[in-house]
Amino acid sequence: MDLYKLKSHELKSLLEKGELKSEEIVSSFLQRIEDVDPKVSAFLYVDKEESLKNAKKADENRENGGLLSGIPVGIKDNISVKGMQNTCGSKFMEGYIAPYDATVVTKLKEEGAIILGKLNMDEFAMGSSTEYSAYFPTKNPHDLDRVPGGSSGGSAAAVAAMEVPLSLGTDTGGSVRQPASFCGIAGLKPTYGNISRYGVTAFGSTLDQVGTFARDVKDLALLTTSISGYDRMDFTTNQRDKVDLYTGLNRDIRGKKIAIAKDFLGEGLSDGARKNLMDMIEVIKDNGASVDFIDLKLTDYSLAAYYIISSAEASSNLARFDGIRYGKRAEKAKDVIDLYNKSRSEGFGAEVKRRIMLGTYVLSAGYYDAYYSKALKVRKLIQDEYKEIFRNYDAIISPTTPTPAFKLGDNTEDILAMYLNDIYTVPVNIAGIPAVSIPSGKLNGLPLGLQIMGNYFDEQGILNIAHAVEQSLNLDMTPGL
Ligand code: GLN
Question: Which of 34, 250, 262, 425 is the one with CA 20 to 30 A from 363?
Answer without folding.
Answer: 425
